Amino acid sequence: MTFEALGLHASVLKALTEAGYTKPTGVQEQAIPAALAGRDLLVSSQTGSGKTAAFMLPALHKFASAEPSAEAARTPNQQSQSARARGERPRFRAAQPKMLVLTPTRELALQVTTATDKYGAYMRRIRAVSILGGMPYPKQMQLLAKNPEILVATPGRLIDHMESGKIDFSQLEILVLDEADRMLDMGFIEDIEKIVAATPDSRQTMLFSATLDGVVGNMAKRITTEPTIIQIASSSSRHENIQQRVHFVDDLSHKNRLLDHLLRDETMDQAVVFTATKRDADTIADRLNIAGFAAAALHGDMHQGARNRTLDSVRRGQVRVLVATDVAARGIDVPTITHVFNYDLPKFPEDYVHRIGRTGRAGRNGLAISLVNHAEGMHVKRIERFTKQLIPVNVIEGFEPKRTAAPRPHKPNGWKPGDSRGGKPGQRSFSKPGAPRREGSSYGSGNGSSFGKGPRGADAGARRSYGDR
Ligand code: AMP
To answer: Do the domains 4-231 and 242-463 sit in the same CATH topology, yes or no?
Structure first.
Protein backbone atom coordinates (compact mmCIF):
# COMPACT_ATOMS: atom_id res chain seq x y z
CA MET A 1 0.00 0.00 0.00
CA THR A 2 1.27 3.47 -0.90
CA PHE A 3 0.01 6.96 -0.13
CA GLU A 4 -0.63 7.42 -3.87
CA ALA A 5 -2.89 4.36 -3.82
CA LEU A 6 -4.93 5.99 -1.07
CA GLY A 7 -5.75 8.72 -3.56
CA LEU A 8 -4.44 11.65 -1.54
CA HIS A 9 -4.15 15.09 -3.13
CA ALA A 10 -0.87 15.84 -4.97
CA SER A 11 0.08 18.63 -2.56
CA VAL A 12 -0.29 16.27 0.40
CA LEU A 13 1.72 13.56 -1.38
CA LYS A 14 4.50 16.04 -2.03
CA ALA A 15 4.69 16.95 1.65
CA LEU A 16 4.76 13.27 2.63
CA THR A 17 7.64 12.59 0.27
CA GLU A 18 9.49 15.51 1.79
CA ALA A 19 8.78 14.17 5.28
CA GLY A 20 10.36 10.88 4.21
CA TYR A 21 7.21 8.81 4.67
CA THR A 22 7.35 5.95 2.21
CA LYS A 23 4.21 4.03 3.14
CA PRO A 24 1.22 4.43 5.43
CA THR A 25 1.32 2.93 8.91
CA GLY A 26 -1.34 0.38 9.92
CA VAL A 27 -3.69 2.94 11.38
CA GLN A 28 -3.26 5.23 8.38
CA GLU A 29 -3.96 2.38 5.97
CA GLN A 30 -7.28 1.68 7.65
CA ALA A 31 -8.39 5.12 8.73
CA ILE A 32 -7.55 7.21 5.66
CA PRO A 33 -9.88 5.47 3.15
CA ALA A 34 -12.79 5.53 5.62
CA ALA A 35 -12.15 9.18 6.46
CA LEU A 36 -11.88 10.09 2.77
CA ALA A 37 -15.27 8.43 2.27
CA GLY A 38 -16.62 10.86 4.85
CA ARG A 39 -17.25 8.24 7.53
CA ASP A 40 -17.15 8.93 11.24
CA LEU A 41 -14.30 7.01 12.88
CA LEU A 42 -13.65 5.43 16.25
CA VAL A 43 -10.02 4.42 16.40
CA SER A 44 -8.08 2.72 19.13
CA SER A 45 -4.43 2.71 18.23
CA GLN A 46 -1.19 2.76 20.09
CA THR A 47 0.72 5.89 20.83
CA GLY A 48 3.34 6.60 18.16
CA SER A 49 1.41 4.67 15.51
CA GLY A 50 1.02 7.63 13.18
CA LYS A 51 -2.50 8.57 14.26
CA THR A 52 -2.03 12.30 13.67
CA ALA A 53 -1.52 11.75 9.96
CA ALA A 54 -4.40 9.25 10.00
CA PHE A 55 -6.86 12.06 10.68
CA MET A 56 -4.97 15.06 9.29
CA LEU A 57 -4.11 13.73 5.81
CA PRO A 58 -7.72 13.02 4.78
CA ALA A 59 -8.76 16.38 6.19
CA LEU A 60 -6.06 18.22 4.24
CA HIS A 61 -6.98 16.23 1.14
CA LYS A 62 -10.56 17.43 1.52
CA PHE A 63 -9.54 21.08 1.92
CA ALA A 64 -7.05 20.88 -0.94
CA SER A 65 -9.68 19.38 -3.21
CA ALA A 66 -12.23 22.10 -2.37
CA GLU A 67 -13.27 24.55 -5.05
CA PRO A 68 -10.50 27.13 -5.51
CA SER A 69 -13.16 29.85 -5.39
CA ALA A 70 -14.24 28.63 -1.96
CA GLU A 71 -10.65 28.86 -0.78
CA ALA A 72 -10.25 32.31 -2.22
CA ALA A 73 -13.50 33.47 -0.64
CA ARG A 74 -11.95 32.72 2.68
CA THR A 75 -9.70 35.74 2.71
CA PRO A 76 -9.06 36.45 6.36
CA ASN A 77 -10.96 39.31 7.83
CA GLN A 78 -11.86 41.12 4.62
CA GLN A 79 -14.22 43.13 6.75
CA SER A 80 -11.39 44.19 9.06
CA GLN A 81 -9.18 45.16 6.12
CA SER A 82 -11.79 47.39 4.53
CA ALA A 83 -12.64 48.93 7.91
CA ARG A 84 -8.96 49.69 8.39
CA ALA A 85 -8.86 51.30 4.91
CA ARG A 86 -11.72 53.58 5.99
CA GLY A 87 -9.75 54.51 9.08
CA GLU A 88 -12.24 52.74 11.35
CA ARG A 89 -11.39 50.39 14.12
CA PRO A 90 -12.10 46.93 12.67
CA ARG A 91 -14.86 44.96 14.31
CA PHE A 92 -13.73 41.51 15.44
CA ARG A 93 -15.37 38.81 13.41
CA ALA A 94 -15.59 35.38 14.99
CA ALA A 95 -13.25 32.78 13.51
CA GLN A 96 -15.10 30.10 11.57
CA PRO A 97 -12.83 27.06 11.48
CA LYS A 98 -13.53 24.13 9.19
CA MET A 99 -11.74 21.64 11.43
CA LEU A 100 -11.27 21.34 15.18
CA VAL A 101 -8.85 18.95 16.88
CA LEU A 102 -9.29 18.63 20.64
CA THR A 103 -6.35 17.31 22.64
CA PRO A 104 -5.84 16.74 26.36
CA THR A 105 -2.58 18.66 26.69
CA ARG A 106 -0.83 21.69 25.30
CA GLU A 107 2.16 19.64 24.19
CA LEU A 108 0.03 17.29 22.13
CA ALA A 109 -1.83 20.25 20.63
CA LEU A 110 1.43 21.91 19.59
CA GLN A 111 2.63 18.69 18.13
CA VAL A 112 -0.53 18.23 16.07
CA THR A 113 -0.19 21.82 14.83
CA THR A 114 3.43 21.26 13.83
CA ALA A 115 2.50 18.02 12.04
CA THR A 116 -0.32 19.86 10.22
CA ASP A 117 2.10 22.56 9.06
CA LYS A 118 4.36 19.81 7.75
CA TYR A 119 1.61 17.86 5.95
CA GLY A 120 0.00 21.03 4.61
CA ALA A 121 3.24 22.73 3.52
CA TYR A 122 2.29 22.66 -0.18
CA MET A 123 -1.32 23.74 0.14
CA ARG A 124 -2.50 27.14 -0.97
CA ARG A 125 -3.77 28.50 2.28
CA ILE A 126 -4.21 26.22 5.18
CA ARG A 127 -3.58 27.66 8.55
CA ALA A 128 -3.56 25.62 11.70
CA VAL A 129 -3.35 27.39 15.03
CA SER A 130 -3.17 26.14 18.60
CA ILE A 131 -5.57 27.56 21.18
CA LEU A 132 -4.14 26.64 24.54
CA GLY A 133 -4.41 27.45 28.18
CA GLY A 134 -1.36 29.38 29.38
CA MET A 135 -0.98 31.30 26.12
CA PRO A 136 -1.61 35.08 26.38
CA TYR A 137 -5.12 36.08 25.24
CA PRO A 138 -4.00 38.94 22.92
CA LYS A 139 -1.77 36.52 21.02
CA GLN A 140 -4.66 34.11 20.63
CA MET A 141 -6.96 36.89 19.46
CA GLN A 142 -4.42 37.72 16.75
CA LEU A 143 -4.33 34.10 15.65
CA LEU A 144 -8.13 33.84 15.61
CA ALA A 145 -8.40 37.09 13.63
CA LYS A 146 -6.63 35.30 10.78
CA ASN A 147 -9.67 33.05 10.55
CA PRO A 148 -7.68 29.81 10.50
CA GLU A 149 -9.12 26.75 8.82
CA ILE A 150 -7.89 24.41 11.52
CA LEU A 151 -7.98 24.91 15.27
CA VAL A 152 -6.06 22.59 17.54
CA ALA A 153 -7.14 23.22 21.09
CA THR A 154 -7.30 22.07 24.66
CA PRO A 155 -10.94 22.14 25.81
CA GLY A 156 -10.81 24.69 28.66
CA ARG A 157 -9.34 27.65 26.76
CA LEU A 158 -11.47 26.90 23.73
CA ILE A 159 -14.62 27.23 25.84
CA ASP A 160 -13.43 30.65 27.06
CA HIS A 161 -13.15 31.88 23.46
CA MET A 162 -16.46 30.32 22.46
CA GLU A 163 -18.22 32.01 25.35
CA SER A 164 -16.79 35.39 24.46
CA GLY A 165 -17.98 35.02 20.86
CA LYS A 166 -14.51 34.69 19.29
CA ILE A 167 -15.22 31.36 17.63
CA ASP A 168 -18.21 30.28 15.60
CA PHE A 169 -18.42 26.59 14.78
CA SER A 170 -21.36 26.85 12.36
CA GLN A 171 -19.06 26.09 9.39
CA LEU A 172 -17.21 23.21 11.06
CA GLU A 173 -16.81 20.17 8.81
CA ILE A 174 -14.48 17.93 10.80
CA LEU A 175 -14.16 17.32 14.54
CA VAL A 176 -11.32 15.20 15.94
CA LEU A 177 -10.98 14.09 19.54
CA ASP A 178 -7.38 13.01 20.03
CA GLU A 179 -6.58 10.87 23.08
CA ALA A 180 -10.22 11.07 24.08
CA ASP A 181 -9.75 8.68 27.02
CA ARG A 182 -7.17 10.99 28.47
CA MET A 183 -9.39 14.05 28.09
CA LEU A 184 -12.10 12.24 30.03
CA ASP A 185 -9.59 11.16 32.71
CA MET A 186 -8.67 14.81 33.07
CA GLY A 187 -12.29 15.76 33.71
CA PHE A 188 -13.03 17.46 30.38
CA ILE A 189 -16.29 15.61 29.69
CA GLU A 190 -18.60 18.59 30.24
CA ASP A 191 -16.39 20.87 28.18
CA ILE A 192 -16.31 18.34 25.37
CA GLU A 193 -20.10 17.94 25.40
CA LYS A 194 -20.47 21.73 25.29
CA ILE A 195 -18.05 22.06 22.37
CA VAL A 196 -19.66 19.22 20.43
CA ALA A 197 -23.11 20.78 20.97
CA ALA A 198 -21.85 23.99 19.33
CA THR A 199 -20.88 22.19 16.11
CA PRO A 200 -23.20 21.24 13.24
CA ASP A 201 -24.72 17.75 13.18
CA SER A 202 -23.46 17.41 9.61
CA ARG A 203 -19.82 17.32 10.80
CA GLN A 204 -17.52 14.34 10.36
CA THR A 205 -16.31 13.10 13.74
CA MET A 206 -13.12 11.11 14.35
CA LEU A 207 -12.30 9.91 17.82
CA PHE A 208 -8.91 8.46 18.75
CA SER A 209 -8.41 6.78 22.09
CA ALA A 210 -6.32 4.12 23.79
CA THR A 211 -9.55 2.37 24.67
CA LEU A 212 -13.04 2.47 23.21
CA ASP A 213 -14.64 0.87 26.26
CA GLY A 214 -16.54 2.36 29.17
CA VAL A 215 -17.10 6.10 29.43
CA VAL A 216 -15.22 6.82 26.19
CA GLY A 217 -17.32 4.27 24.34
CA ASN A 218 -20.54 5.83 25.68
CA MET A 219 -19.47 9.30 24.68
CA ALA A 220 -18.34 8.03 21.27
CA LYS A 221 -21.81 6.60 20.66
CA ARG A 222 -23.42 9.93 21.45
CA ILE A 223 -21.24 12.05 19.20
CA THR A 224 -20.73 9.84 16.12
CA THR A 225 -23.05 8.49 13.44
CA GLU A 226 -22.60 4.91 12.25
CA PRO A 227 -18.85 5.12 12.80
CA THR A 228 -16.26 2.86 11.23
CA ILE A 229 -14.50 1.18 14.14
CA ILE A 230 -10.78 0.57 13.80
CA GLN A 231 -8.85 -1.30 16.45
CA ILE A 232 -5.17 -1.34 15.66
CA ALA A 233 -4.03 -2.44 19.08
CA SER A 234 -5.73 -2.58 22.42
CA SER A 235 -4.97 -0.15 25.20
CA SER A 236 -2.50 -2.74 26.40
CA SER A 237 -0.62 -2.18 23.19
CA ARG A 238 2.28 -4.56 22.94
CA HIS A 239 5.05 -2.15 22.11
CA GLU A 240 7.00 -4.95 20.50
CA ASN A 241 9.84 -2.59 19.61
CA ILE A 242 10.31 -1.46 23.20
CA GLN A 243 12.24 -3.63 25.62
CA GLN A 244 10.93 -3.36 29.14
CA ARG A 245 12.74 -4.09 32.38
CA VAL A 246 12.33 -3.80 36.09
CA HIS A 247 15.28 -3.10 38.39
CA PHE A 248 14.59 -3.57 42.09
CA VAL A 249 16.12 -1.03 44.45
CA ASP A 250 16.47 -1.00 48.23
CA ASP A 251 16.03 2.70 48.87
CA LEU A 252 16.25 6.15 47.35
CA SER A 253 20.01 6.32 47.43
CA HIS A 254 20.24 2.96 45.64
CA LYS A 255 17.69 4.21 43.11
CA ASN A 256 19.64 7.42 42.43
CA ARG A 257 22.94 5.59 42.04
CA LEU A 258 21.39 3.09 39.66
CA LEU A 259 19.72 5.82 37.62
CA ASP A 260 23.03 7.68 37.28
CA HIS A 261 24.68 4.49 36.16
CA LEU A 262 21.99 3.62 33.63
CA LEU A 263 22.03 7.13 32.20
CA ARG A 264 25.68 6.61 31.33
CA ASP A 265 24.77 3.75 28.99
CA GLU A 266 26.55 4.64 25.81
CA THR A 267 23.68 3.42 23.64
CA MET A 268 21.51 6.11 25.19
CA ASP A 269 20.79 9.02 22.95
CA GLN A 270 18.13 10.82 24.96
CA ALA A 271 15.97 9.77 27.90
CA VAL A 272 12.80 10.72 29.68
CA VAL A 273 12.76 10.08 33.44
CA PHE A 274 9.24 10.03 34.87
CA THR A 275 8.57 11.15 38.42
CA ALA A 276 5.37 11.15 40.44
CA THR A 277 5.55 14.79 41.51
CA LYS A 278 6.51 18.13 40.01
CA ARG A 279 8.82 18.76 42.92
CA ASP A 280 10.70 15.52 42.32
CA ALA A 281 11.00 16.38 38.64
CA ASP A 282 12.73 19.66 39.59
CA THR A 283 14.89 18.08 42.28
CA ILE A 284 16.06 15.20 40.13
CA ALA A 285 16.75 17.44 37.11
CA ASP A 286 18.88 19.68 39.37
CA ARG A 287 20.71 16.70 40.81
CA LEU A 288 21.41 15.23 37.38
CA ASN A 289 22.68 18.57 36.10
CA ILE A 290 25.10 18.75 39.00
CA ALA A 291 26.18 15.20 38.14
CA GLY A 292 27.05 16.40 34.63
CA PHE A 293 24.01 15.33 32.61
CA ALA A 294 22.30 17.86 30.37
CA ALA A 295 18.99 17.53 32.18
CA ALA A 296 15.82 19.61 32.34
CA ALA A 297 12.48 19.32 34.12
CA LEU A 298 9.07 19.44 32.44
CA HIS A 299 5.89 19.68 34.47
CA GLY A 300 2.54 21.40 34.71
CA ASP A 301 3.69 24.16 37.07
CA MET A 302 5.95 25.59 34.40
CA HIS A 303 4.68 28.40 32.15
CA GLN A 304 3.84 27.34 28.64
CA GLY A 305 6.77 29.35 27.26
CA ALA A 306 9.22 27.51 29.49
CA ARG A 307 7.65 24.17 28.59
CA ASN A 308 7.98 24.92 24.88
CA ARG A 309 11.58 26.05 25.27
CA THR A 310 12.44 22.87 27.15
CA LEU A 311 10.81 20.68 24.49
CA ASP A 312 12.64 22.57 21.76
CA SER A 313 15.93 21.94 23.56
CA VAL A 314 15.04 18.24 23.73
CA ARG A 315 14.25 18.20 20.01
CA ARG A 316 17.52 19.96 19.23
CA GLY A 317 19.39 17.44 21.37
CA GLN A 318 20.61 20.06 23.86
CA VAL A 319 18.75 18.34 26.67
CA ARG A 320 19.65 14.68 26.94
CA VAL A 321 17.63 13.80 30.02
CA LEU A 322 14.14 15.16 30.40
CA VAL A 323 12.69 14.68 33.89
CA ALA A 324 8.94 14.88 33.57
CA THR A 325 5.57 14.26 35.14
CA ASP A 326 2.86 12.37 33.28
CA VAL A 327 0.64 15.16 32.05
CA ALA A 328 3.49 17.29 30.77
CA ALA A 329 5.11 14.41 28.96
CA ARG A 330 2.00 13.26 27.16
CA GLY A 331 2.36 13.60 23.45
CA ILE A 332 6.13 14.17 23.41
CA ASP A 333 7.27 12.89 20.05
CA VAL A 334 11.04 12.98 19.76
CA PRO A 335 12.34 10.05 17.71
CA THR A 336 15.80 10.25 19.31
CA ILE A 337 14.47 9.31 22.76
CA THR A 338 16.01 5.87 23.24
CA HIS A 339 15.30 5.33 26.94
CA VAL A 340 12.40 5.85 29.30
CA PHE A 341 12.90 5.51 33.04
CA ASN A 342 10.13 5.17 35.56
CA TYR A 343 11.82 6.73 38.57
CA ASP A 344 8.41 6.38 40.16
CA LEU A 345 5.83 3.98 38.81
CA PRO A 346 2.77 5.68 37.34
CA LYS A 347 -0.44 5.72 39.32
CA PHE A 348 -2.44 4.05 36.56
CA PRO A 349 -1.27 1.19 34.33
CA GLU A 350 -2.58 3.10 31.27
CA ASP A 351 0.01 5.77 32.01
CA TYR A 352 2.74 3.15 31.95
CA VAL A 353 1.80 2.39 28.34
CA HIS A 354 1.86 6.06 27.43
CA ARG A 355 5.13 6.65 29.21
CA ILE A 356 7.01 3.85 27.51
CA GLY A 357 5.55 5.02 24.20
CA ARG A 358 7.79 8.12 24.45
CA THR A 359 10.55 5.88 23.12
CA GLY A 360 10.38 3.54 20.13
CA ARG A 361 8.80 6.30 18.03
CA ALA A 362 8.28 5.97 14.30
CA GLY A 363 9.25 2.31 14.23
CA ARG A 364 12.55 2.63 16.11
CA ASN A 365 13.58 0.56 19.09
CA GLY A 366 13.53 1.69 22.67
CA LEU A 367 14.21 0.63 26.22
CA ALA A 368 11.90 1.26 29.18
CA ILE A 369 13.29 0.69 32.67
CA SER A 370 11.28 0.87 35.89
CA LEU A 371 13.14 1.41 39.15
CA VAL A 372 10.99 -0.29 41.71
CA ASN A 373 11.26 -0.88 45.42
CA HIS A 374 10.14 -4.20 46.79
CA ALA A 375 6.94 -2.84 48.27
CA GLU A 376 5.81 -1.91 44.76
CA GLY A 377 5.74 -5.47 43.45
CA MET A 378 1.93 -5.46 43.35
CA HIS A 379 2.01 -2.35 41.27
CA VAL A 380 4.23 -4.05 38.71
CA LYS A 381 1.77 -6.94 38.61
CA ARG A 382 -1.09 -4.56 37.88
CA ILE A 383 0.87 -3.12 34.97
CA GLU A 384 1.64 -6.62 33.70
CA ARG A 385 -2.01 -7.61 33.92
CA PHE A 386 -2.99 -4.50 32.02
CA THR A 387 -0.41 -4.90 29.28
CA LYS A 388 -0.70 -8.70 29.29
CA GLN A 389 3.07 -8.77 29.16
CA LEU A 390 5.58 -9.83 31.75
CA ILE A 391 8.34 -7.38 32.48
CA PRO A 392 11.67 -9.10 33.05
CA VAL A 393 13.66 -8.24 36.14
CA ASN A 394 17.23 -7.23 35.61
CA VAL A 395 20.16 -6.89 37.99
CA ILE A 396 23.38 -5.06 37.24
CA GLU A 397 26.58 -6.17 38.88
CA GLY A 398 27.56 -3.76 41.61
CA PHE A 399 23.97 -2.53 41.91
CA GLU A 400 22.32 -5.69 43.23
CA PRO A 401 19.46 -5.07 45.64
CA LYS A 402 20.13 -6.41 49.14
CA ARG A 403 16.73 -8.01 49.17
CA THR A 404 16.12 -10.66 46.59
CA ALA A 405 12.90 -10.08 44.72
CA ALA A 406 10.17 -12.45 45.78
CA PRO A 407 9.23 -14.86 43.03
CA ARG A 408 6.18 -13.86 41.05
CA PRO A 409 4.76 -17.18 39.96
CA HIS A 410 1.57 -15.69 38.56
CA LYS A 411 0.67 -15.16 34.97
CA PRO A 412 -1.17 -11.98 34.18
CA ASN A 413 -4.83 -12.44 33.29
CA GLY A 414 -5.35 -13.20 29.68
CA TRP A 415 -1.69 -14.02 29.18
CA LYS A 416 -1.06 -16.80 26.73
CA PRO A 417 2.10 -18.79 26.18
CA GLY A 418 2.58 -17.14 22.79
CA ASP A 419 2.64 -13.75 24.47
CA SER A 420 6.01 -14.38 25.99
CA ARG A 421 7.99 -14.10 22.80
CA GLY A 422 8.39 -17.82 22.52
CA GLY A 423 9.50 -18.63 26.06
CA LYS A 424 8.05 -21.27 28.29
CA PRO A 425 5.17 -20.06 30.42
CA GLY A 426 5.19 -20.46 34.15
CA GLN A 427 8.92 -20.14 34.65
CA ARG A 428 10.19 -17.06 36.29
CA SER A 429 12.89 -14.88 34.89
CA PHE A 430 14.39 -13.30 37.95
CA SER A 431 18.10 -13.26 37.73
CA LYS A 432 19.29 -15.77 40.25
CA PRO A 433 20.92 -14.28 43.33
CA GLY A 434 24.61 -14.73 42.97
CA ALA A 435 24.34 -14.78 39.22
CA PRO A 436 23.54 -11.22 38.45
CA ARG A 437 23.04 -10.13 34.91
CA ARG A 438 26.31 -8.63 34.00
CA GLU A 439 26.86 -5.04 33.25
CA GLY A 440 27.29 -5.97 29.62
CA SER A 441 23.75 -7.20 29.50
CA SER A 442 22.43 -3.70 29.59
CA TYR A 443 20.66 -2.84 26.41
CA GLY A 444 22.76 -3.36 23.38
CA SER A 445 26.03 -2.53 25.06
CA GLY A 446 29.14 -4.57 24.49
CA ASN A 447 28.37 -4.56 20.84
CA GLY A 448 29.40 -1.84 18.50
CA SER A 449 26.49 -2.17 16.13
CA SER A 450 23.30 -0.19 16.42
CA PHE A 451 21.17 -1.26 19.30
CA GLY A 452 18.04 -3.28 19.40
CA LYS A 453 18.37 -5.01 16.05
CA GLY A 454 17.70 -8.43 17.53
CA PRO A 455 18.75 -10.85 20.20
CA ARG A 456 22.45 -10.97 19.82
CA GLY A 457 25.34 -10.64 22.16
CA ALA A 458 24.49 -9.20 25.50
CA ASP A 459 21.14 -8.03 24.29
CA ALA A 460 20.07 -11.60 23.76
CA GLY A 461 20.39 -12.25 27.48
CA ALA A 462 17.87 -9.60 28.30
CA ARG A 463 15.49 -10.83 25.66
CA ARG A 464 15.80 -14.39 26.86
CA SER A 465 14.71 -13.43 30.30
CA TYR A 466 11.58 -12.01 28.70
CA GLY A 467 10.60 -15.36 27.36
CA ASP A 468 11.68 -17.47 30.29
CA ARG A 469 8.58 -17.04 32.37
P1 AMP B 1 1.91 9.98 15.95
O2 AMP B 1 1.39 8.64 16.39
O3 AMP B 1 0.97 10.69 15.06
O4 AMP B 1 2.35 10.81 17.13
O5 AMP B 1 3.22 9.73 15.04
C6 AMP B 1 4.38 9.13 15.55
C7 AMP B 1 5.60 9.40 14.69
O8 AMP B 1 5.52 8.66 13.47
C9 AMP B 1 5.78 10.85 14.28
O10 AMP B 1 7.15 11.16 14.46
C11 AMP B 1 5.43 10.90 12.82
O12 AMP B 1 6.17 11.90 12.14
C13 AMP B 1 5.84 9.52 12.36
N14 AMP B 1 5.04 9.00 11.22
C15 AMP B 1 3.71 9.08 11.07
N16 AMP B 1 3.32 8.45 9.95
C17 AMP B 1 4.44 7.96 9.35
C18 AMP B 1 4.70 7.21 8.16
N19 AMP B 1 3.72 6.82 7.34
N20 AMP B 1 5.97 6.88 7.89
C21 AMP B 1 6.98 7.25 8.72
N22 AMP B 1 6.82 7.95 9.87
C23 AMP B 1 5.56 8.31 10.19
So the answer is: yes
Q: What is the pLDDT of residues 80-106, one digit of tens each?
A: 555 556 666 556 689 999 999 999 988
Closest residue by Cα to atom 8, ligand 1, is 362
Task: State whether the beta carbon of 220 lies less than 6 angstroms from ligand 1.
Answer: no
Q: If you take atom 20 of ligand 1, which residue's CA is the nearest one?
A: 21
Tell me phi and psi for residue 172, to 5 degrees.
-65, 130
24 ligand 1 Cβ < 6 A: yes
How far is it, in rounded angstroms, from Cα 304 to Cα 308? Answer: 6
Is residue 204 in contact with ligand 1, taking CB distance under 6 Å?
Answer: no
Quote the Cα angle for 343-232-23, to 5°.
100
Q: Cβ distance 108 to 330 under 8 Å?
A: yes
Instruction: Return the CATH number of 4-231, one of 3.40.190.10, 3.30.420.40, 3.40.50.300, 3.40.50.12780.
Output: 3.40.50.300
Q: How far apart are CA 18 and CA 117, in angstroms?
A: 13
Q: Could you tell me which of 103, 121, 99, 129 has the C-alpha nearest to residue 51?
A: 103
Q: Average per-residue pLDDT in the chain?
A: 81
**Coil, helix or strand for 224?**
coil
**Per-domain boundaries in the chain:** 4-231, 242-463
Cβ of residue 331 lying under 6 Å from some atom of ligand 1: no
Kind of pairing, strands 128-131 and 41-44?
A: unpaired
Ligand 1 pocket mutation, candidates 178, 314, 333, 364, criterion most atoms within 8 A of CB: 333
CB-ligand 1 contact for 423 (6 Å cutoff): no
Which DSSP string corresponds to 289-356? HHTT--EEEE-TTS-HHHHHHHHHHHHTTS-SEEEE-HHHHTT---TTEEEEEESS--SSHHHHHHHH
CATH topology of domain 242-463: Rossmann fold (3.40.50)
What integer pLDDT is reported at residue 125 of this predicted model?
77
pLDDT tens across 289-304, in order?
A: 999 999 999 998 888 8
Q: Ligand 1 centre from 3 Cα, in Å? A: 13
The residue ranking higher by pLDDT, 33 or 419, is 33
Say if ligand 1 is within 6 A of residue 49 CB.
yes
